């Protein structure tokens, strides 16, 4: 690949992922539009990780780096506030998904993410840990609950165990944080994912279709995916990422540039002048 081609790809991503000052994200509505546009989006990653990011879109530049003292940094502080507001509004899916990454997902892709990482109710007893099942049982009874109350009700006395259980339930698309409260002390309010996204989570999607559509969403915003990039961004295994990309080639949506590298088949039509 030539440097010229790589420059064109980065310019394409600047536009698609809102990495330009004139298109920076400034409100919760802007953030929701970004997620709707790209399909899925990290919350707080910076230039050191590939893929669309709310933090980078708030900064409006591709080289944004998260500072050590985020509380005093206006861009990271705004990103955190917008993340909380988008979470509360509940118009896009938000949770720690694959590999514990805080991720926004557009409703149209929730069935596909669930097909890849969700756990069917009939398999919960074999797939979920005892602590996760205890937390899930409480939330199915109470619907929503703050962290401290949930720990007590589920009888998971150790905070680290509860955190692991909640991470597991988020990763398997069972539970989501519905709101962050800061007074009188900080806590998340947890609720069932199906409470906000019942229709999307009930939709049946094959694994093959899910891999293809997740790959499509990323490639549409990236213009070209480099070797291992889709797996790194999504948490998919490299073989699964390859299956998704090759499915796009078979339907003519993408072309294979070289081993592990795929580009939009009509990239030239969308590339910046």
Task: List its traits.
14 helices, Arc Repressor Mutant, subunit A, 3-stranded antiparallel beta sheet, 273 residues, 52% helix, globular, alpha+beta
Structure notes:
By secondary structure, the chain is an alpha+beta fold. The protein folds into three domains: 16-105; 119-202, Arc Repressor Mutant, subunit A; 207-270, Orthogonal Bundle (Arc Repressor Mutant, subunit A), CATH 1.10.10.10. The chain contains 14 helices and nine strands. The strands form three sheets. It has a three-stranded antiparallel beta sheet. Strands 4-6-5 form a three-stranded antiparallel beta sheet. The protein has a three-stranded antiparallel beta sheet with strand order 7-9-8, covered by helices on one side. A hairpin with a 5-residue loop joins strand 2 and strand 3 (102-105).
Ends: how far apart? 19 Å
Q: What string gives the helices and strands in order?
A: HHEHHEEHHHEHHEEHHEHHEEH
Overall shape = globular
Total domains, how many?
3
Helical content band: 40-55%
Number of strands: 9
The Rg value, from CA coordinates, equals 19 Å
- Alpha plus pi helix count: 14
Beta-strand percentage range: 5-15%
Unreliable runs:
none
Taking strands numbered 1, 2, ... along the chain, how are they ordered across the largest sheet? 1-3-2
* Major sheet summary line: 3 strands, antiparallel
Average pLDDT number: 93
SSE inventory with pairings:
Blueprint (H helix, E strand, L loop, with lengths): L2 H14 L11 H11 L1 E3 L11 H6 L14 H16 L3 E4 L5 E4 L4 H8 L6 H4 L2 H13 L1 E3 H7 L5 H13 L3 E7 L5 E6 H10 L4 H16 L1 E2 L3 H6 L3 H13 L3 E5 L2 E4 L2 H4 L3
Antiparallel strand pairs: 1-3, 2-3, 4-6, 5-6, 7-9, 8-9
Helix pairs in contact: 2-4, 5-11, 7-9, 11-13
